[in-house]
Design a protein that fits this description.
115 residues; mainly beta; Jelly Rolls; 9-stranded antiparallel beta sheet; 61% strand
Length: 115
C-alpha cells in the first residue's frame, strides 16, 4: 500500500533565485519545499514562495499553480498581463515565455510535469 505524502512546510526549504541574467527588477529570493518527486523525475509538487521582484520566465514544463498568499503579475511575450492573488488557480503550459513579477510576497502550491 502506498501512503499519502503530506506537504510539510516545517522542513527546511531550499532557497534560490532566478538566474541573475533573467532578473529585471528587485532581488526575488525564493524558498521551495519540494515535497514530492516521481521516480522517473518528471513530476514534482510542493510549495514555493518568493520575495518581490520581476524576472523573465521560459517554461519547458507544465505547471499547475494555486496561489496561497500574496499577489503576482504574469505577462506573456505579447505583454498580456494576468494578476493572480490568493485563491487563484491556473496552469502555465510548456512553451510559455514572458515575465513573472511578485508584487507582494507570493506563496503557491505547485505541481510540475516535465514531459
Amino acid at each position: 500500500m502506498t501512503a499519502l505524502i503530506p506537504v510539510n512546510t516545517a522542513a527546511t526549504p531550499e532557497t534560490g533565485a532566478p538566474d541573475a541574467a533573467r532578473v529585471l527588477e528587485g532581488e526575488p529570493v525564493s524558498s521551495t519545499w519540494n515535497v514530492y518527486e516521481s521516480g522517473d523525475g518528471k513530476f514534482f509538487s510542493g510549495i514555493w514562495e518568493s520575495e518581490p521582484g520581476k524576472w523573465r520566465i521560459e517554461y519547458t514544463e507544465h505547471e499547475f499553480c494555486h496561489i496561497i498568499e500574496g499577489e503576482s503579475v504574469i505577462a506573456d511575450e505579447a505583454g498580456t498581463q494576468t494578476r493572480v492573488r490568493a485563491g487563484d488557480a491556473f496552469v502555465i503550459p510548456a512553451g510559455f515565455k514572458g515575465t513573472w513579477e511578485v508584487v507582494t510576497k507570493t506563496r503557491k502550491h505547485y505541481a510540475i510535469y516535465e514531459a
